[in-house]
Amino acid sequence: MAIQLSDNDIERLITERKPLPDDYRERIQTRPKRGHKERELDVTGEANSEFRIIFRQSEINPLDFSVILAYRPPKSNQLFRLRRYNGKSHEHSNTLEGKTFYDFHIHTATERYQDAGLREDWFAESTGRYADFNSAIRCMLQDCGFDIPLSPQVALFEEEV
Fold first, then answer.
1. What is the domain count for the chain?
2. Which of 43, 45, 100, 115 could form a disulfide with 16 if both were Cys (CB 3.0 to 4.6 A apart)?
3. Any domain includes 161
4. Residues pairing with 93 in the sheet
């Protein structure tokens, strides 16, 4: 049975506080997997909601990536994609709006797209908030209620993920 969530439930899940484990940086280092690099991290929110973050990047095209926040409902093995931060590697069309663009973009689950029988996170908006895989990760962590533990050593010339 397909998962159906209201816009209010989607927003509540996106903004729910999600503490990251102290070793999250090591645990999100991607590994090769059939032409791309991928890694997953399971996180429990403060309201005990179960989430999975999926990190995926092409080994050929560095702009072909996705950083996904998914929700796992209780007693289910299905994932509901709440947000998806995509690279600038393909054209995207918002089916219901009839709008097409080629840019970095953020997908958000909507009740409207679910009601139309489309993928929950098909709606997307163009963004200039990130320009590569690592900055897309930072953007998702900032946008989606993650509590990032302080690093004992901060890189001098690079922003942390």
1. 1
2. 45
3. no
4. 100
Please tell me the pTM assigned to this model.
Answer: 0.90
The CA distance from 76 to 11, in Å, is 20
**Token pair in block for residue 84:** 């998806």
How does the average pLDDT of the chain come out, rounded?
92
Confirm whether 49 is domain-assigned: yes
Q: Amino acid identity of 151?
A: S
Which residues does residue 54 pair with via DSSP β-bridges, in sequence order? 40, 68
Residues 6+ apart with CB under 8 A from 113: 95, 96, 119, 120, 121, 122, 123
Tell me what pLDDT residue 156 has. 43
Q: Could you tell me the pLDDT band of residue 157, with boundaries at 50, 70 and 90?
A: very low
Listed in sequence order, the residues at least 6 apart from 156 whose beta carbon sits closer than 8 Å to its beta carbon are none
Q: Which two tokens stand for residue 101?
A: 């663009």
- Classify residue 155: in a domain, yes or no: no
β-strand 146-147 against 18-19: which pairing, if any?
A: parallel
Q: For residue 114, give its domain range.
A: 8-147
Pick from 125, 81, 145, 109: which is nearest to 6 by CA? 109
The tokens of 68 are what? 């996904």
Distance CA 156, CA 97 (A): 44
